[in-house]
Specification:
The complex is a heterodimer. Chain A has no helices and 11 strands. By secondary structure, chain A is mainly beta. Chain B is mostly beta strands. The chains are: A mainly beta, B mainly beta.
């Protein structure tokens, strides 16, 4: 089966612009999770979507937002980009049964 | 709230050495425990998991035992290889939120030298 796919692989934006990151979960997985992995800071939970609804949100400002589409794919939007938003953004999916996540390879966002 | 504490790296070992990466946790209820591995330039992969006390998760020669009395889930491997060089993350999910939200530790970088 196809894994979790993320696009684009790399994204370079200037400060103040908006970035849109995309994620397609494994077929049959209804939950999508977004994490930020900044250099040296581990994984910080951003957002969790399930069945099209936002279920939980991490400690990030409102300029980080997203949505989940009827086919369970998801989009993460970051508005008014700041230099410290430069990070690897990881998407994961699960069936929602607590068995752990399957991660995509991530989108490397660089803000200059 | 939930939290995971793992030993700071980097950990540098010679090939065939014994590996231990310590992990302790704080959680509400009865969590499930995981180890994930991230190879350079890649996303995270689930390495092993355990869902109840005294369970031992194992995969690719790695093992970890769910110790509820010490709230620990230490990762071990008897003989590491250069190909094991990666960042290892301890993680948990708890009944809060139906076991769906996973909390990660900060990661421990392992470097194995020939």
């Amino acid at each position: 089966e196809a894994g979790v796919t993320q696009s684009p692989t790399h994204l370079i934006k200037t400060r103040g612009q908006q970035a849109t990151l995309r994620c397609s979960p494994i077929s049959g997985h209804t939950s999508v999770y977004w994490y930020q992995q900044a250099l040296g800071l581990g994984l910080q939970f951003l957002l969790w979507y399930d069945e099209g609804e936002e279920r939980n949100r991490g400690n990030f400002p409102p300029r980080f937002s997203g949505r989940q589409f009827p086919n369970y794919s998801s989009e993460l939007n970051v508005n008014a980009l700041e230099l410290e938003d430069s990070a690897l953004y990881l998407c994961a999916s699960s069936r929602g049964q607590g068995g752990g996540y399957t991660f995509g390879s991530g989108t490397r966002l660089t803000v200059v | 709230g939930n939290s995971v504490t793992q030993m700071e790296g980097p950990v540098t070992l010679s090939e065939e050495a014994f590996l231990t990466i310590n992990c302790t946790y704080t959680a509400t209820g009865y969590p499930s425990l995981f180890w994930y591995v991230q190879y350079p330039g890649e996303g995270l992969q689930l390495l092993l998991k355990a869902t109840k006390a005294d369970d031992k998760g194992s995969n690719k020669g790695f093992e970890a035992t769910y110790r509820k009395e010490t709230t620990s889930f230490h990762l071990e491997k008897g003989s590491v290889q250069v190909s094991d060089s990666a960042v290892y993350f301890c993680a948990l999910s708890s009944p809060e939120g139906g076991y769906q939200k996973v909390t990660f530790g900060t990661g421990t970088k392992l470097q194995v030298i020939p």
